[in-house]
């Protein structure tokens, strides 16, 4: 008999972005104040000293994604016939649809964090905020994994940096 | 009336470490093969190409933590009278106890990922694995936030790097 563990989380706020139907990969921001994290007021005390950090992690529930994707898939945008496991990708179709983005803080006013660009849909439920701490989270030896094997690396880089292209 | 959103996740594997009762902050590993991520076999296909990455993010359920901590607290180890919001810390006592660690892959055999040191308890339920991608996740401009204001920065650094000390 398989052990079933019930893991329940709650929405602690919401992420506001300009993206209703299409979100770029890693967008550059266009307008000031167009990306906001709004914490439910009962949790706003927990933001104390957060503004001392330059970057933060946001963890969120990928609520627009319905149903599980395949465990192995061919990412469209690579334009190559390449099989990738879901855990080797940042695709939303994961067994547990938890999103993770790094963004930088522009300012915090009461329960609102104004951030730079975020690749999430408007209204996405927030699960957690964590500080991105230099020595802990910067891994200078990190690599690009299978992305480095793509023939058109420049194209991949555009996706990664959110640069619009054909 | 407050909108209640039910967010349910499932265990997709387990993290094995040598830590049963006390876990260091960011431990160095001592023994080869003492840190493992064991994916439930039904998800092991999703690991395809993961071994091409040097570093990965692990997301897990902090199941040893019972009940919520305060939204603002004084971290013991700082030895300073400093108030910190839970979202400005990596403390486990969060509204949603989701843990996030970065570790590096030593090898992957079938459904087992052998990793370097991990600051989690043995048996921790795994929620997700994501690749840590150089240009996306390395933020060279990152800072230390309020940690930089501590009088004893050397002590903080030891905690951060998991170096044993008095």
Question: What is the gist of this entry?
Answer:
The first copy, chain A, has 166 residues and is mainly beta.
Polypeptide structure, described:
2 copies of one chain form a homodimer. With 166 residues, chain A is mostly beta strands. Chain A has a single domain, classed as Elongation Factor Tu (Ef-tu), domain 3. Helices cover 8% and strands 28% of the residues of chain A. The first copy, chain A, is built from 2 helices and 9 strands. Chain A has helices at 134-137, 153-161, and strands at 7-9, 13-16, 36-39, 55-61, 72-73, 84-85, 98-109, 112-115, 124-131. Chain A has a 6-stranded antiparallel β-barrel. In chain A, strand 7 (98-109) and strand 8 (112-115) form a beta hairpin. The longest helix of chain A is centred in the last third of the chain and has 9 residues, at 153-161. Chain A is globular. The mean pLDDT of chain A is 87. Chains A and B meet through strand 1, strand 4, strand 6, strand 7 and strand 9 of A and strand 1, strand 4, strand 6, strand 7 and strand 9 of B. Strand 1 of chain A pairs antiparallel with strand 1 (7-9) of chain B.
């Amino acid at each position: 008999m398989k052990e079933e563990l019930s893991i329940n989380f709650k929405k602690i706020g919401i992420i506001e972005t300009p993206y209703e139907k299409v979100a770029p990969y890693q967008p550059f921001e266009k307008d000031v104040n167009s990306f906001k994290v709004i914490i439910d007021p009962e949790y706003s005390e927990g933001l104390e000293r957060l503004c001392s950090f330059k970057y933060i992690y946001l963890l969120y529930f990928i609520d627009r994604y319905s149903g599980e994707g395949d465990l192995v898939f061919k990412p469209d945008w690579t334009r190559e016939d390449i099989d990738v496991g879901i855990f080797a990708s940042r695709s939303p179709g994961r067994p547990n649809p938890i999103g993770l983005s790094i963004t930088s803080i522009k300012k915090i006013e009461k329960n609102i964090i104004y951030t730079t660009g975020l690749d999430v849909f408007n209204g996405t439920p927030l699960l957690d905020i964590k500080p991105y701490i230099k020595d802990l989270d910067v891994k200078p030896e990190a690599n690009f994994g299978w992305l480095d094997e793509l023939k058109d690396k420049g194209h991949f880089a555009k996706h990664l940096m959110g640069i619009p292209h054909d």
